[in-house]
Amino acid sequence: MKRVKLFVPILGAILGMGVYVGHANEMSKKAASAAEQSWEVIDPTGDLTDPNNYQSYSGDIADLCPEDNVFCGIKAENNAGKPQMTPQLEAEINSGVPTSHVFYRGE
User: How many CA within 13 A on the CB side of residue 44?
Assistant: First the structure.
């Protein structure tokens, strides 16, 4: 009986810790995606890695750019009113392939 009394609080602590870790991981993912903003390209024939070639888009860029034909926009962090161009984002843009940060539309 003494073993059962000791087992129950230990099991509760383990389950509680698992819930806490899972919740913290989910909150971290939400914070990362909340920091990203949608940006619509101004001139698809211009320099696609130039932050000045983008304007903020108030909706989800994935809704504006549902297909894969013409470069349409990106998701990136806001850097003083322009998208933050990281080397990774520039590589994704230059790849010419849609990613979770780079969007195209049909035309």
Answer: 15
Question: What residues does each domain of the chain span?
Answer: 36-105
| Single pTM value for the model | 0.64
Token look-up 């919740």 returns 23
Pairwise CA distance, residues 21 & 56, whole Å: 34
What are the phi and psi torsion angles at 63 (to 5°)?
A: -75, -35
Mention every residue, 6+ apart, whose C-beta is less than 8 A from residue 73.
38, 39, 40, 41, 54, 57, 61, 64, 65, 103
Kindly report, residue by residue over 84-98, the tens digit of the pLDDT. Answer: 999 999 999 999 889
